[in-house]
Design goal:
- The protein is an alpha+beta fold.
- It folds into 3 domains: 68 residues, no CATH class; 99 residues; 152 residues, 2-Layer Sandwich (Alpha-Beta Plaits), CATH 3.30.70.
- The chain contains 11 helices and 5 strands, in the order αααααααβααββαβαβ.
- Strands 2-3-1-4-5 form a 5-stranded mixed sheet, with helices on both faces.
């Protein structure tokens, strides 16, 4: 029987020393406790929670449990996409691209080493021929030596041309593999559903933006945006339509930002927007523009063309101050988002108001 103190902690049972059997038992216990089916994705989430890593995933699960006293299969599926499925797939992409890149580099190094060996042999031939030429003044012998050197030089030139061609081909292949590796690295920080930045990228980027704002004295605003009553869309039309709505909203956000602005999926139906060099007033104007565009949208289900109804979003805005770090800025933007929700949703709350 698991102790109740550790049940909600997302930390491994110290008595089990991270033993796979003990972790599996805890994972199944979590699935049973929260009435979620132990299918592979859900089991993987609970296993990770039992192991206590990744920490961000465990924090999200603990927040859901604290807020609702439960966690749904849908929420766990969303967390799986965000924290587990994506990283595994992209890790394979990176490993494959890295493997091929290493192979091509080894091939290039081998060619260069063989060419160096040929140069050494040709240098030795030149040395022996020079000694032979100084040892005799016989014209016939000199002519024979020169002809031999010409033949060997021709062979060296042919090898150099061949090497140059091979290195050109390898250079092309390495450039192509480098591009694939860069794409895989970029995909590591992209949400696969909405195609905007993911939580992992956001967590890395925000501290850098804050530091830059403080260094340059320019304003920085963080916006937390949440689709209103999104669960109702999922319950009424299904998760596939819900995913389409998320994609639409993400594309709308992305379309309205510019320059160094960052749109990231923060989790579930919540998005974060980093607005460097942007005042609170301009951040609010931008959110009003997005709200107006969303309000004019006529969203329908592709099959049957049934109208989804009006989809709205709520926004919380916080401007970075000298006392802020990433955690406090997110907390203040979240508080403004909560304030806007509590006063009716489909509105904006800013700490500059």
């Amino acid at each position: 029987m698991l102790d109740t103190e550790n049940l909600h902690s997302g930390k491994p049972d110290r008595g089990g020393h991270d033993d796979p059997v003990a972790l599996a038992s805890r994972a199944l216990h979590f699935a049973e406790t929260y009435n979620t089916p132990p299918v592979p994705k859900i089991y993987e989430i609970w296993y990770a929670f039992a192991a206590g890593k990744p920490e961000k995933l465990c924090q999200e699960i603990r927040k859901l449990i604290a807020a609702n006293g439960a966690v749904s299969s849908y929420e766990l599926d969303q967390l799986h996409r965000e924290f587990l499925a994506l990283s595994e797939e992209q890790r394979r992409e990176q490993e494959l691209a890295g493997f091929h890149l290493d192979r091509e580099m080894h091939k290039a190094i081998g060619l260069v080493q063989r060419h160096i060996g040929s140069n050494d042999r040709f240098a030795e031939t030149l040395k022996k021929s020079a000694n032979a030429m100084t040892a005799t003044a016989n014209p016939a012998k000199l002519q024979q030596t020169v002809e031999f050197l010409l033949v060997d030089n021709g062979r060296m030139r042919a090898e150099s041309v061949k090497l140059s061609h091979s290195l050109d081909q390898i250079r092309i292949e390495v450039r192509k593999l480098g591009a694939q590796l860069e794409k895989a690295r970029q995909n590591e920080f992209k949400d696969p559903l909405t195609n905007v930045a993911n939580r992992r990228y956001f967590d890395r980027a925000l501290p850098r933006f804050i530091a830059d704002a403080f260094a340059t004295g320019s304003p920085l605003n963080l916006v937390m945006a949440d689709l209103d009553h999104f669960k109702l869309v999922n319950d009424t039309f299904g998760h596939q339509v819900g995913d389409d709505v998320l994609r639409y909203f993400a594309a709308l956000l992305q379309k309205n930002v510019k320059g160094r602005d960052i749109v990231a999926r923060y989790g579930g139906e919540e998005f974060a927007i980093i607005l460097p060099s942007t005042t609170s007033a301009n951040a609010k104007l931008l959110m009003q523009q997005i709200m107006a565009q969303l309000g004019r949208a006529n969203l329908v289900v592709s099959k049957g063309h049934n109208p989804i109804g009006k989809v709205t979003s709520t926004f919380g805005i916080a401007q970075a101050t000298r006392s802020d770090d990433a955690e406090t800025l997110i907390k203040r933007a979240d508080m403004k988002l909560l304030e806007a929700k509590q006063t009716g949703r489909n509105r904006i709350a800013s700490d500059a108001d």
